[in-house]
Amino acid sequence: MKVEIEESKLQTAYANACDGVKDFMESLFGKKVFEAAKPTLDDYKTIRTYEDACKALGKPIFEDPNNLPNHIIALMKLETISRALWGRNFQPKPDGEGSKVYWYPWFALWTKKEVEDMNPEQRGALLSAHAHHGAYAGFGYLNASNRSSHASAAVGFRLCQETEEKAKYFGQQFIELWAEYLKFNFTVGNRLK
How far apart are CA 174 and CA 168, in angstroms? Predict the structure, then answer.
């Protein structure tokens, strides 16, 4: 019998295994196979878990002594992961001129079929939520305008990435954390393996 295992899946299993299982896997496949699995700031795809991000950054894993709400803990973890995904040399800086583009993971909350199956009132509520500064992407959105100043909060800059590819990886690989952070009672779909 021949069994084939994708290297990325084997490395993910290794990264999530306890020490005894890691020893067993190393004896079975050799240590060299798993060297690439070690989290590093030089390759964002080696950051597969929050714990990987902490290892790559040399940061301790967050322990919650204050019993914070789960969505706050998820946000803190996402910020740590985002920093690790930026890598060793990337330092994002807000650009007042607007010449630099950053990417943020966006999520589809409804499938095309789900939207088609909504009654007109539900569909109208969904569409109007985005139409006038109420809920970008279906989530809460704050906007203060028509006053002496204008301020809005739509996207968390600390969660942005410098490439579309990294933002997509960030959204898909860590979808469970995003779901916990956004707390919108939706089901989680596909995740990168």
Answer: 10
